[in-house]
Amino acid sequence: MERIVAAREELEKQVAQKIVEGIKKLLQEKDYLVLGIVGGSSVAGVFSYLKEYSINWNKVHIFMADERLVPLDSDESNYKLAKEAFLDELLASGELAEENLHPFVYKSNQGDYGLNSYIEELNRYGGRMDMLLLSAGEDGHTASLFPNHPSIKQEDKSYILVDNSPKPPVKRISASKNLLLKAKESFLLFFGEQKVDAYRKFSDDNISIKECPSKLVKSIDKSYVFIDIEE
């Protein structure tokens, strides 16, 4: 695991650059890859830099590592943030095909809200996310896996339903811990003073993954952790 400490804007550029480098390397080995992303303010800046790079986006399939159970046009949608920050521009330029985008479609009239359909969709692309862009929450959570919560204890191989999230909205889907651990490469962000305690927990060897789920990335083959310093 590599830790990189710098000012936030510099880190956003570095994260984007390392994601692009990772994509190029993986595409030398594979015909396509799956990139898993989250939402939130921490990743928005990274998205804006990603669209500046010229890579073969048509060999990249984008899935959500977690999502709120809301319509795709909701301001709470993680996918909407990504779409507005960089995906729309790549689509408009023809660099990325619509079929390479895999948002979670919330189906309020189904008992599983569309969860099983999303698992099947990921399975069509290998059942794993090759690369992950994640952020850590103030409590040390990542994706929608929360400390000392049923979400981090579930042993499912793919996505899980989180219907009692400690953070609003209470209903979400998330990559399970086992799905996150299938990744070859991960990028975890600790941005903002409010993440100081979360980073301390992440760095403390006496604190378990159940107490600090973002520690999962330490078990991923190639992982980068980015910590900003407010000047």
UniProtKB/TrEMBL annotation:
Keywords: Hydrolase
UniProt-listed Enzyme Commission number(s): 3.1.1.31
Ranges where the Glucosamine/galactosamine-6-phosphate isomerase domain occurs: 8-219
Single GO molecular function: 6-phosphogluconolactonase activity
GO annotation, biological process: carbohydrate metabolic process; pentose-phosphate shunt
One Pfam entry name: Glucosamine_iso
InterPro entries, alphabetized: 6-phosphogluconolactonase_DevB, 6PGL, Glc/Gal-6P_isomerase, NagB/RpiA_transferase-like
Gene3D superfamilies cross-referenced by the UniProt entry: 3.40.50.1360
Catalytic activity: 6-phospho-D-glucono-1,5-lactone + H2O = 6-phospho-D-gluconate + H(+)
Origin: domain of life: Bacteria
SUPFAM superfamilies in the record: NagB/RpiA/CoA transferase-like (SSF100950)
Pathway assigned in UniProt: Carbohydrate degradation; pentose phosphate pathway; D-ribulose 5-phosphate from D-glucose 6-phosphate (oxidative stage): step 2/3
NCBIfam families xref list: pgl
Similarity-based family: Belongs to the glucosamine/galactosamine-6-phosphate isomerase family. 6-phosphogluconolactonase subfamily.
Main function: Hydrolysis of 6-phosphogluconolactone to 6-phosphogluconate.
Protein name according to UniProt: 6-phosphogluconolactonase
Taxonomic source organism: Orenia metallireducens
